[in-house]
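Shift notes (night). Ran Major facilitator superfamily domain-containing protein while the centrifuge was going.
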Amino acid sequence: MDAHLHVITPSHRQAALGPSLAPPPKLQSVSLIATLACIAFLNTFNSGTLTVALPAIAADLEIPPSLLLWPASVYALALSCTLLLLGAIADVVGNRPVFLIGCVLNCGWTLAVALAQTSNQLIVFRTLQGVSMAFCMPTAVSTITNTFPSGKPRNFAFASFGAGSPIGFASGLVLGGLLAQAAGWRTAYYLAAGANAVAFVLAYFTLPRIAPPVSNIRHALVHEFDWVGVASASSSLALLSYIFAQISFSGSTMRAPHNIALVVIGGLLLPFFVFWEGRQERLGRPAILPNSIWRQREFTAVCVTVFLVWAWFNAFGYWATLFFQDTQGLDSLNAALRFLPMVIVGLLTNIVAGVVVDKIPAGILVLVSGLISASGPLLYALQEPGWTYWAAGFPGMCLGVISTDLLFNIANLVITTQFPSRRQALAGGVFNTVTQLGNSIGTAVTAMIAASVTEAEMHGGNGVEAASATLKGYRSAFWACFAAAVISIVTSSVGLRKAGKVGAKKDV
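Came back to this:
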């Protein structure tokens, strides 16, 4: 195992990714893709179920208002701060054992969520769910890039993997809502645990059985692993994610002395990480994410674009839910049903992505899809509460998701190309870390904006009613989402203009 990660130039990318891969047999390919898509499905199914069933869960477990949003937040927090660590470990010990361990753990903790009797138990089990999913997501990306040859096979594998997310979220919203009313919210998590058990069985028989990437795993983990870099990056991400989650609940919590201290510590760890990675690279020692990789235009542009798009898209979904329920007075199930067009369009977008990423330059695809999707939050910022769903809600849902699902495929192809074959799980960890960080920050920032606008309206001396002030706060959040979408369009237009057709087959 090399001492550090070399930056891959275009002329050496194929060599770094290894020799040409022979596509696996058709049955094995279908089974493997189904297994990986099932994990992506479960990742969002649990979140969708929690979104729609949270009122029922809160009533059953007597969750206090101060902890109401933590079952969702701790999952994202635990996932985001362990992705780099587990991705890097998987590159040492191999994808198969790490993925299988993740499946077992996720099955167990999902079952534990279904059996939780108190709010504290639920929060702890959701945290452990996030950690277990961090075993699976980076290794899924690595399995795709190291199993399917570049070109159409890999494009469709990523498209199918990406399609699991919108289907999972939709199923969680609909089934979670129905089951919460008919059979109880726990039934949805029992089903998820069962599906996870099936995924484990499929993974056991379909994941490639290959020798570990290194001959001496213990020596590699002790002497050839950037533990300081991983620890500083993970700690910083954990602290900052926690702070952003706190801000999402109430901006006033930032005045607490312990939160101020955590912000300072998390902020200082970031420059330390940059310093440490530069030092490691300069001395030829192991570096989890060497600074030189950020000089690759496409890599940096994709990471920034992914961060911005996932920030505004996740926030857009959050505020759309509140708009449906608080402003238009819909119950949770009817609000969830209004997200179905987004899911269907997202699924179709992944199918289209598998077809076009090897035919159309990435810069054009991201630019056009970004312009289309920016109209989603724009429509919601302009709509009135009395408008029918078909006037703005429906087209906003359909258009807003296109750039996210198309970018999922493009970003995975670009990021994995920048890493050699032996570091593909780390590449998957980088992508998923950027998305999770975008999710956390997007919700937190828009929550601060909405809260400040609502408060200003309420105390401005203009006699504004609470409902009107709240609506203006929601609109300000949608405008913030639109602004982030525009910035992402500019970033991708500049950074990816020379990226070419990222899904094209690479010749050796």
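Residues 353 and 406 are 6 Å apart (CA to CA). The radius of gyration is 22 Å.
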